[in-house]
Amino acid sequence: MRARTGLLFVPYLLLLLAFLVVPIAGLVEISARNQSVTSIGGVGLTMANYQRVFEGFYLDIIFDTVRLAAIATLIGATLAYPLAYVIVRSQPLARTVLTCLVMVPLMTSVVVKVFGWFILLGRGGPAVRMLQKLGIEVQTLLNTEPSVVVGLVEFALPFMVFSLVPALDRISPAVEEAAANLGATPFQTFRLVILPLSASGLTSGALLCFGISSSAYVVPAIMGGHAVRMIAQQIYDDVLVAFDWPAAAAFSIALLVLLSVLIFAALRASRRATDV
Amino acid sequence: MSDRRFSPLRRLFLVPAAAVLCFMLLPMTVVVLIALGESATYEFPPRGLTLHWFSNLLHAGPLLNALFLTSLPLALTVAAASLVVGTLAAVGLTRGRFLGRSALEVFFLTPVVFPQILLGVALFLLFARANVPLTLVTLGIGHVVICTPYVIRAVLAGIGGIDPRIEEAARNLGAPPARAFMMATLPLLRSSMLSGAVFAFIVSFSDVNIALFLSAGDTTTLPIRILAEMEWNNDPTIAAAATLQVSIISVLLILVQRFIGTVRA
């Protein structure tokens, strides 16, 4: 019985092998091919695609992506803390309501959220009209780096909140009370007690936020227009517009390696921090 | 449970937390208000309320088709498939005693953190090179990959909360192992399975990154249709479709929260 029930996971294992592992292996293969008009997968064997990834145009996109994703993660973490803390320290009913209110933007399609920002910040929208009343002449607030950051932060925030909640949940209110009794101001309590004790949630949340921000397509495509170019946009255009699959594949693998290295480094750092 | 008698920090954080919550809900609220507004363009704040754009949706062929002929049937099928595959996987994981069990669990949950856009590209290139035409089936496969982990997570959590002695008792009373599992444990997993399936439905229903590459022509999902139309058509009917999307997801989340209890993403 044990041996047979243990095999119940085989269907999903096969599914993941066929439609996650094999496609990624295919991506690696295509990334080492020359682009060809006769063969859709490319021909020959080359490292030229990777050389291209680390040259001017593509390298700029990588730097911009990392920079914008890092800024969004930093802002997201700062904004998520108060909300996560209030959720954890609320009575059951308020906690349930707040959890639902964060859950809805978490699960709603990013398209709907970007639609809202498009109306708010775009041409003739309320934000532009307000600025014009103040005498500032702008046509649109979209198509700038700050607008992309706003979109990324809003997209990543619920993920950050739900990463912080379990970490904050483990901190007993008695610890905070002790800190206050010893003369700590609320700010000191936060910096010296709450922040270090919730570091694990902060790390995993930051990784998650950075991961989804750096691979975001819809936010930069709609809110960045032609002014901002991030990795996912370039991959999309290379695949579906330029049909330069080897370049897209190499760029995808580069993003994957970047994220893997980051996750590995962060996990090692956090393990070292907990060892001390 | 928290102790509310003492928390000066909570008082301090209350206003910033409310502001952050408003920021998070702002864009969705704007879309809903545009859908309810009388103006025939994206006018915000809206003047007057109307349901006109929702009835107009009935005449908006492409949006309607995307919702009723693609997104809804797709999400329902994906949820059902994920439920079966995911429940089997979760039960297999907890029953099997073998080397690398925890590594396998991590592997099974990778689609949650794996950049979806890359999975979309990788699947697109896989199908293109194998000359497999893009249909609802190929899109569904992509969705089952990203949705099943939600079922696995819910069922694993459910199994963790069940007293193993219940199944043992069934077996001691003479039930064969498989029957003992089906009769004693499975019914207790019903709510975990249901909440996992609901999450699978929602993830499929709101996905863009996979559909961006795998939906084509007559298999355009609602989010992709909204994405394609919102920039060029200044039409509140699109906002009505988006509102419908948000409403379906919100109602499902509230039902899960209400009848199954706290769920976490």
From TrEMBL, chain A:
- Where does it reside? Cell membrane
Q: GO CC: one term?
A: plasma membrane
Q: Which Pfam families match?
A: BPD_transp_1
Specify the domain of life of the species encoding this protein: Bacteria
Enumerate the spans annotated as ABC transmembrane type-1 domain: 62-268
| Listed GO biological process terms | transmembrane transport
Q: Which InterPro entries match?
A: MetI-like, MetI-like_sf
Keywords tagged on the record: Cell membrane, Membrane, Transmembrane, Transmembrane helix, Transport
Which residue ranges run through the membrane?
7-28, 68-88, 100-120, 148-168, 189-213, 245-267
Indicate how the chain sits in the lipid bilayer.
Answer: Multi-pass membrane protein
Family as reported in the entry's similarity comment: Belongs to the binding-protein-dependent transport system permease family. CysTW subfamily.
Any idea what this protein is called? ABC transporter permease
The protein's organism comes out as: Propylenella binzhouense
From TrEMBL, chain B:
* Sequence ranges assigned to domain ABC transmembrane type-1 in this UniProt record: 68-257
Q: Which Gene3D superfamilies match?
A: MetI-like
Q: Which InterPro entries match?
A: MetI-like, MetI-like_sf
Q: Where in the cell is it found?
A: Cell inner membrane; Cell membrane
Q: Where are the transmembrane segments?
A: 12-36, 72-94, 106-128, 134-156, 193-217, 237-256
**Protein's UniProt keywords contain Metal-binding:** no
Write down the PROSITE patterns for this protein, in alphabetical order.
ABC_TM1 (PS50928)
GO annotation, biological process: transmembrane transport
In this record, what's one Pfam family? BPD_transp_1
Membrane topology listed for this record: Multi-pass membrane protein
**Which keywords does this Swiss-Prot/TrEMBL entry list?**
Cell inner membrane, Cell membrane, Membrane, Transmembrane, Transmembrane helix, Transport
Q: Name one GO cellular component term.
A: plasma membrane
Family per record: Belongs to the binding-protein-dependent transport system permease family.
This chain's protein is named ABC transporter permease
Species of the source: Propylenella binzhouense
